Amino acid sequence: MASEVILTSQNKTMNMSDNNEFDVTQTIQLIDVIITHVNLTGVNSVLLTSANYVMDVRRVLPSNDKSLSFNNTYYPDVSFVIPPSVVKQSNSTLGIRVGFTLFQNAELFPSKKYKVYKVISAKVTGLMDNTILKDPVKFTLPANQSSMTSLSCGFWDFKASDWSTHGCIMTSQSPVMCQCNHMTNFAILITIHSQGNLNKLSTQRNNLIFLDYIS
């Protein structure tokens, strides 16, 4: 039997099925529905929480000229910033809403290439996920780096059913800060290297140093 996650906020509750049969596409579609239809009567924003998700939904004016940020006191190492130009790219005729969703784990996003701990997504109604943004969105997420790992910034590619780094760059390594030129689901991608690969990389670096020295 499917369990039920209760997304709660002040004076508001919403149910979201936590059915194990739900895949990432169905879950994101459901989240989009929540962002579009959650009741914002009398308020400009609402925070929805569950054991697996944190959602921040806001009503935004088309004339907005300030960056929109996801900052939560319970998650000080997580942030997401949408520049004002992104809202102006929306073609929504029903009023613009912005939704941030923090996934507490990456179970919905199984990868053959990367290790991922947390996922954050952002949605602006009236803006397709593959729209190239005039100004990039920026985000930070917790990531543990060691000598056996390397980090990169990426998004969930629905066509490939895996993470991709296309359109994303890392702007800082400590702390890890990323920016991407489109809106979707983002994460810090951790590549775990085997000792053999590390030895190969070390040999390649030493060869380059030697060639540089003799030239």
From TrEMBL:
Domain GAIN-B: start-end pairs: 58-196
Pfam families in the cross-refs: GPS
Assigned keywords, A-Z: Disulfide bond, Membrane, Transmembrane, Transmembrane helix
InterPro entries cross-referenced by the UniProt entry: GAIN_B, GAIN_dom_sf, GPS
Tree of life domain: Eukaryota
Main localization of the protein described in the UniProt heading: membrane
Keyword Zinc-finger listed: no
Cellular localisation: Membrane
Cellular component terms (Gene Ontology): membrane
Listed PANTHER family: G-PROTEIN COUPLED RECEPTORS FAMILY 2 PROFILE 2 DOMAIN-CONTAINING PROTEIN, G_PROTEIN_RECEP_F2_4 DOMAIN-CONTAINING PROTEIN
Protein name, as recorded: GAIN-B domain-containing protein
Organism in which the protein naturally occurs: Ciona intestinalis (Transparent sea squirt)
